[in-house]
Amino acid sequence: MSDTLKVAVGILIPFLGTTLGAATVFFMKGEMKPALQKALLGFASGVMIAASVWSLLIPAIEMAKSSGGAAWVPAVTGFLLGMGFLLLLDVLIPHLHLNSDKPEGPRCGLGKSLMLVLAVTLHNIPEGMAVGVVLAGMLSGSETITTAGAFALAAGIAIQNFPEGAIISMPLLGTGITRSRAFLYGFLSGAVEPVGAVVTILLTSLVTPVLPYILAFAAGSMIYVVVEELIPESQSGEHTNIGTIGVALGFALMMLLDVAFG
User: Fold this and answer.
1) What is the pTM assigned to this prediction?
2) In a domain? residue 9
3) pLDDT (tens digit, 9 = 90+) per residue, 10-69?
4) How many CB atoms lie within 10 A of CB 68?
5) How many domains are contained in the chain?
6) In whole angstroms, what is the distance from residue 4 CA to residue 47 CA?
7) Are 229 and 97 spatial neighbours (Cβ–Cβ below 8 Å)?
8) What is the residue-wise DSSP string for 36-96?
9) Whether 148 contacts 2, CB under 8 Å
């Protein structure tokens, strides 16, 4: 398989997960049960935390060590910049979190459906970046990031994108829109991931020395999403234990994929 084909497949795998998740609106009746929603939110959190550590931060540290620099500098700098970047987007982009009636960001005239989609789109950006930077590391010939490791991350993101696609599309049915439009919104919310991956690959190919920083940047962005949105939503109201179990299962699965195939 050529490098171009590997990159194309790696980029599209997570997007496929979101698309299939959004398609559940055609098969499920009624709204998603709160317990299931919390389990899926927790699962997505666990996957993103484990991916941030094993697929992004650890490779960033190892790359810095191999280059002879201070191993902690790219990891800490990139991580904090990633957190800051998502915080900035959170402030500048109007959006509405699940199970909330109070929009965040600047005031605008957008409806609830679009605000929910913007919230999911916002936290899909770091996932696209994470896949892109790992694929860029694979292309650079780095010993730290293997082809199997890159595809393990893409598969892990795809697995957690499936419930995310369902989580955004199913609640939209309660706003009065059709199933087809709910699917379309879920589909479009995931479209930012391939775009983010391609932009990250292009950026990294132009400035290869920044690869450890971008790895840590993607990790910081993903952890921001987990702390700001996924964990709080999985731990609000009833069934919080189910959300916690979801975190454990998601973390364990992503850790398994990274260690076994990384």
Assistant:
1) 0.87
2) no
3) 999 999 999 999 998 888 776 678 888 889 889 999 999 999 999 999 999 998 888 777
4) 7
5) 1
6) 27
7) yes
8) HHHHHHHHHHHHHHHIIIIIIIHHHHHHHHHTTS-THHHHHHHHHHHHHHHHHHHHHS-B-
9) no
